[in-house]
DNA sequence: CACGAGGGAGAACGATCGTTCTCCACAGCG
DNA sequence: CGCTGTGGAGAACGATCGTTCTCCCTCGTG
């Protein structure tokens, strides 16, 4: 197994374990067992646990936002694209492994104690917000404050789905989003 | 110092430290120093750290929701009362000690590992949601799905204010809430 | 004063865990 | 075959921290 494969195996194991149980509940030894990579190699690639956590968040951010973008790109109508964000959230919430937002969870766990983790969480949320803003721009509607409002709905749905196990939060957010779009002049479905 | 005063001192210290730094970053010794209560007494009142954490969340929930209710009760118009929830969130976000939602943070930190903490977080969020629902009921507007939508906005504002340091999230959520209310037939200010 | 109960201060204990070190197997190469 | 260095397995180390224990002081009571 070369360095590249080891790195991938480590990040895969880290993602599954950290997301599922929380960072502090997972030891480096658990990562080792789950990945099959020796501790020596682990510490060569990630000299401290914190760096593994940050790398996990960074890679997940990339994947998460790309998956969202691909899902959205399946629609052609710009309004539908905006609403598809909420559909996608709904499919995420329905995933059996769903356990809330990885970045919110990590921020709660380590944000006060690890600037790097706090930064990753901030970056992810800002990235998501600007992705959403771009989708709103494409509709031609006035972006402010519409995009921010839709972002609040999305974040609210994520947190509610995670904490209250409320998988319908996506649909409900979609409904509210449609109403806000209509209030701003989007053509209403008939 | 009698038992009652010791309990209060402990919960005060726990609240300040746990909220400010996260639960796992605070040792029982820190609680002892900050409260002035001896370890022996601490363990008499809270036989394990987890119970102190749960008691902290429970007392904070009570205070938080009462403070919100009192703020809201200063207005008499039922629509204004609903919107006042978002004003109150805005004042909370502006507090210099604001560091996001205590329950979301604790859930991220311990939710996967401590059922008691997960339960407290769930209870708080459900309590908040039903408080909001009652305020919407008082307007006479159809409650579903309006109340849920407003709840998503509020949660989104809380999480965004915490993570992105965005103190204006309250105002923005208030704007969106006003629009959703208007779309459901509330009389518009003019 | 004797004495026992209760409480405070802080040492001690035991477990966990991030990180490093030791030891060994084995492959490449003369 | 011997030498060398890379890497794996897992023991060891050191720190932290939740929890308990020890020791001592104090105070109320006979």
TrEMBL record, chains A, B:
Cited InterPro entries: Homeodomain-like_sf, HTH_TetR, Tet_transcr_reg_TetR-rel_C_sf, TetR_C
Tree of life domain: Bacteria
Keywords: DNA-binding, Transcription, Transcription regulation
Keyword Cytoplasm recorded: no
Domain HTH tetR-type: 4-64
Annotated Gene3D superfamilies: Tetracycline Repressor, domain 2
Keyword Transcription regulation applies: yes
Pfam families: TetR_C_13, TetR_N
Location of the DNA-binding region in this protein: 27-46
UniProt name for this protein: TetR/AcrR family transcriptional regulator
Species this protein is from: Streptantibioticus parmotrematis
